[in-house]
């Protein structure tokens, strides 16, 4: 795969930074604590995700837009990206970090669910959506930092899910006015909310506030569960991820202080408060500890972890069998197992 010249790489990175500054201010703030070896890759990753989300969300033919994005990924993974700065930048990330393609494909699937107005009956169904649009990002960030174990990837995915649940809780009103609904429909039925009437006139009621708190409580559980994974990241990356987790968690706390009303205004964390949390995260990052006994991964993210581990095994196989196609590798492995079994039988015959 060709490597971009320093001049073009710098140009692409500058353009990607501009996208991040105009988009996720929390992500941009936390990224400033990342080491240089990771910061550029994370910004490039964010830029592509942002452009892809906007393209799918802008309307028109969703299938055609998704097909276009998949073709762009084909070119990126072939080492011949299009001229767009985000594709050029992502191609460098793919080259340097061997980023699993399935994570980006799962992300696009989540964007498609958004574009088609998919709704979710249960919390577990909502977890599936969050796994695709945010758990994937957590896994990709973890991957480019250099932590590729199943356990660390699981905690990173769960942190992404927690952040997305916080976003959903904060944007209930805005989403409703756009005809979107992420609150689990079972919850709404249990609370006696007539979905059709409420979407026609979104108001902040005691029932909606209670459901908002339920979402935030679920996010808090996952923030706490993900904490152990931060301790397993490279030391120079922990402060940034702790900061992102803390700032997103603070959005939920601020929403509670505002009476859980996400219908009439959008909760934000002030710049001053973000600076305090950034400094606190920097100071506390070295004190985070991991745990030997950790919970099983959230069910909705298990396919992401399995996909990443399959990618690791594939790369190991390619390194061991550099000149063999996959069918030949499989044939070789089965042949080896057969030879080992025959040798075992022969040892039994001779009494060894």
Q: What does this protein look like?
A:
This is Phytoene/squalene synthase family protein. Its cofactor is ATP. The protein has 16 helices and no strands. It is mainly alpha-helical and 352 residues long. The chain folds into 3 domains: 97 residues, Farnesyl Diphosphate Synthase; 209 residues, Farnesyl Diphosphate Synthase, CATH 1.10.600; 32 residues. Helix 12 packs antiparallel against helix 13. The radius of gyration is 23 Å and the shape is globular. The N and C termini lie far apart (52 Å). The N terminus is likely disordered.
CATH homology superfamily name of the largest domain: Farnesyl Diphosphate Synthase
Low-confidence stretches: 1-10
Question: How far apart lie the N and C ends?
Answer: 52 Å
Q: Let me know the average pLDDT.
A: 85
**Shape summary:** globular
Our estimate of the beta-strand percent is under 5%
Report the helical percentage. over 70%
Helical stretch tally: 16
Q: Largest sheet at a glance? A: none
Q: Provide the structure class.
A: mainly alpha
Count of beta strands: 0
The CATH topology name of the largest domain reads Farnesyl Diphosphate Synthase
Please tell me the CATH architecture of the largest domain by its name.
Answer: Orthogonal Bundle
CATH class of the largest domain: Mainly Alpha
What is the radius of gyration computed over CA atoms, rounded to a whole number of angstroms? Answer: 23 Å
GO molecular function: geranylgeranyl diphosphate synthase activity; squalene synthase [NAD(P)H] activity
Cofactor: ATP
Pathway: Carotenoid biosynthesis; phytoene biosynthesis
Protein name: Phytoene/squalene synthase family protein
């Amino acid at each position: 795969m060709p490597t971009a010249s320093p001049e073009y790489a710098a140009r692409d990175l500058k353009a990607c930074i501009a996208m991040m500054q105009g988009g996720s201010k929390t992500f941009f703030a936390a990224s400033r604590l990342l080491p240089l070896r990771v910061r550029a890759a994370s910004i490039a990753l964010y830029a592509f995700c942002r452009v892809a989300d906007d393209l799918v969300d802008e309307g028109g033919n969703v299938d055609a837009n998704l097909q276009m994005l998949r073709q762009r990924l084909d070119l990126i993974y072939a080492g011949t990206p299009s001229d767009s700065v985000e594709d050029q930048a992502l191609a460098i990330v793919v080259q340097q970090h061997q980023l699993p393609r399935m994570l980006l494909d799962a992300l696009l699937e989540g964007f498609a669910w958004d574009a088609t107005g998919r709704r979710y009956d249960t919390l577990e169904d909502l977890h599936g959506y969050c796994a695709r649009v945010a758990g994937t990002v957590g896994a990709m960030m973890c991957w480019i930092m250099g932590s590729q174990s199943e356990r660390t990837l699981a905690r990173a995915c769960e942190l992404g899910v927690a952040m997305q649940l916080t976003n959903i809780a904060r944007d209930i009103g805005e989403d409703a006015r756009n005809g979107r609904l992420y609150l689990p429909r079972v919850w709404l039925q249990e609370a006696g909310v007539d979905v059709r009437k409420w979407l026609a006139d979104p108001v902040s009621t005691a029932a909606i506030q209670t459901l908002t708190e339920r979402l935030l409580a679920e996010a808090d559980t996952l923030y706490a569960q993900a904490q152990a994974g931060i301790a397993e990241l490279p030391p120079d990356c922990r402060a940034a991820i702790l900061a992102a987790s803390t700032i997103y968690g603070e959005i939920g706390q601020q929403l509670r202080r505002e009476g859980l009303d996400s219908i009439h205004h959008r909760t934000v964390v002030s710049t001053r408060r973000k600076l305090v949390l950034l400094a606190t995260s920097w100071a506390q990052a070295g004190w985070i500890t991991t745990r030997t006994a950790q919970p099983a991964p959230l069910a909705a993210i298990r396919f992401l972890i399995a996909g990443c581990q399959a990618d690791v095994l594939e790369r190991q196989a390619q390194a061991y069998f550099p000149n063999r196609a996959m069918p030949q590798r499989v044939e070789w492995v089965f042949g080896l197992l057969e030879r080992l079994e025959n040798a075992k039988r022969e040892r039994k015959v001779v009494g060894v």
